[in-house]
Specification:
single chain, mainly alpha, globular
Length: about 90
């Protein structure tokens, strides 16, 4: 798969996650496997993605009120990450 194809696949998994059809931990596991995509982007993208996915996994363990960060905020940041990655690749 090309980096852009992997980004499309990641975006599809992200849509499934947002629709509640893919649990946070499974989305995170799959998102971390797109090596070709991450290799095609500057190193900061991998670092930021890892931090966002770590927080997403942590937030899934707690209710929204118990967590120090908003799961919706993380979802918004992941959407921005995907958009910026697409911009870099095109």
């Amino acid at each position: 798969m090309t980096p852009l194809q992997q980004l499309d696949a990641l975006n599809a998994r992200f849509d499934e996650f947002r629709q509640g059809r893919l649990p946070p931990h499974e989305f995170s596991r799959q998102a971390r496997q797109f090596d070709t995509l991450l290799a095609a982007l500057p190193p900061a993208f991998s670092e930021v993605q890892g931090q966002l996915l770590d927080r997403l996994e942590s937030s899934a363990l707690f209710s929204e009120e118990s967590c120090s960060f908003s799961q919706q905020g993380l979802i918004d940041h992941l959407q921005v990450w995907i958009e910026k990655a697409r911009s870099r690749l095109t």
